[in-house]
UniProtKB/TrEMBL annotation:
Residues 381-409 are annotated as: Disordered. This is Putative teichuronic acid biosynthesis glycosyltransferase TuaC. The keyword Endoplasmic reticulum does not apply. InterPro entries: Glyco_trans_1, Glyco_trans_4-like_N. Its EC number is 2.4.-.-. Residues 16-191 form the Glycosyltransferase subfamily 4-like N-terminal domain.
Length: 409
């Protein structure tokens, strides 16, 4: 199909982690397809590792990268940020304004709506990436954020969900949407499906991800402590990543006397980190469609993960291996079993990898998202076979029990 060039601007608050990986891959694919692409994001977020990735992306984007102060929570400073963002985005004259995450989605839809009132036909597209959908609808914060999502839903032309679970969460917590919508799984590049061998002096376990309670590093540390209590010595482990709670986890390691067993590394490329340990542990309390799970499976590394978000969709028929989220006893047991039978873990990793490549492809991800843009603009036929409205309705029953427990930690 001939591609009509578009001017696409992606908006996200925090250019880190899986959400930025998604944007980076998508932006590069769109740029290579002949579209003019730009990115706006927070100027206060990101380590040296994250900023280096942004600098590497900048030459690929015809509309550039612009950074403005953006707060995580709702504050009066949002008004100033919105005015600055509006002026910048207005001058870019986007055909597509694609917001990622709760804050990026709010900026994109509000600014896109003002542009439309002033004669610019900017399509407003939103992908939650979990975001406000992690909040408990029975708590005050959840009620506030889900009400805002319902209001912003009226200003939305396209919705993209990265998993069936996320579509079900939106339907359950926010409500039915009239926007054109689609479920599009995150994707990997072909070279990421090459198995990664471990170093000769590899440790037993690796945690890789953001250092915040939502991702469960505290559970990982506590499970290692439990194994030490039972066996007299703790398995060797590495923690790779950065985040707001890093110092608290370091203090936890010292308090539990695990300094000699656990090594902190900061941020590293995933495939480099995989070499450090024989087993990867992802003990998340909540997720949407985590890249680290996809990357671990594609690299054929033995994996222990929790039954949250879209992770069961990745595991498919092997979802019975997943651990109950937040259950320290079951996580400890799973890690003990991995130590006891490494051959079984290796075979499970091989089996899981074999069914991943076709579904979780970056090219497929790009094609389905870009086609949705074109449908919204009326320059591509409607993909009536994959509306997220229908998919999310069917997904609700199997996700309900998990949705009831999800909250922002």
């Amino acid at each position: 199909m001939t591609t009509t060039p578009m001017r696409i601007v992606h908006c996200v608050r925090s250019p880190i982690g899986g959400i930025f990986r998604h944007i980076r891959d998508l932006a590069m694919c769109q740029s290579e397809a002949g579209h003019d692409v730009g990115l706006v994001c927070d100027s206060n977020t990101g380590s040296a590792f994250d900023n280096r990735l942004l600098e590497e992306l900048k030459p690929r984007l015809a509309l550039g990268i612009a950074r403005f102060p953006m707060q995580r929570q709702l504050t009066v400073q949002d008004l100033t940020a919105t005015v600055s963002l509006y002026k910048h985005i207005r001058d870019l004259k986007p055909d597509i304004l694609h917001g990622h995450g709760a804050k990026g989605g709010a900026y994109a839809r509000l600014i896109g709506s003002v542009l439309r009132l002033r004669g610019q036909k900017a399509a407003r597209v939103y992908c939650p990436h979990g975001g406000s959908l992690h909040y408990d609808p029975n708590r005050f914060e959840g009620r506030v954020y889900h009400t805002l999502e319902r209001l912003l839903g009226r200003l939305t032309d396209g919705l993209i969900f990265v998993s069936d679970y996320e579509a079900a969460a939106y339907e359950s917590k926010v409500g039915h949407t009239k926007a054109r919508s689609r479920i599009v799984y995150n994707g990997l590049t072909p070279d990421e499906f090459t198995p990664v061998p471990v170093d000769e002096a590899a440790a037993d376990f690796l945690y890789i991800g953001m250092l915040r309670d939502l991702k469960g590093p505290d559970l990982f540390i506590e499970a290692l402590y439990n194994i030490r209590l039972k066996n007299g010595s703790a398995p060797k482990a590495h923690i790779v990543g950065e985040g707001p709670d890093e110092e608290r986890y370091r203090n936890m390691v010292r308090k539990l006397g695990l300094d000699g067993a656990i090594t902190f590394h900061g941020a590293l490329p995933a495939r480099e980190a995989f070499k450090l340990a024989r087993n990867v542990v992802v003990p998340s309390r909540a997720e949407a469609m985590p890249y680290i799970i996809l990357e671990t499976v594609a690299a054929e590394r033995p994996l222990i993960a929790t039954r949250v978000g879209g992770i069961p969709e990745i595991f498919g028929r092997y979802a019975n291996r997943l651990v109950e989220p937040g259950h320290i006893g079951k996580l400890t047991t799973a890690m003990e079993e991995a130590l006891a039978d490494p051959a079984k873990m290796a075979q499970q990793a091989k089996n899981l990898r074999s069914c991943l490549a076709e579904t979780f492809s970056v090219d497929l991800m790009n094609d389905r998202i870009t086609t949705l843009y074109q449908e919204i603009q009326g320059i591509a036929p409607t993909d009536s076979s994959t509306p997220a409205q229908a998919d999310s309705v069917s997904a609700v029953p199997r996700a309900q029990t998990v949705l009831a427990r999800s909250s922002n930690r």
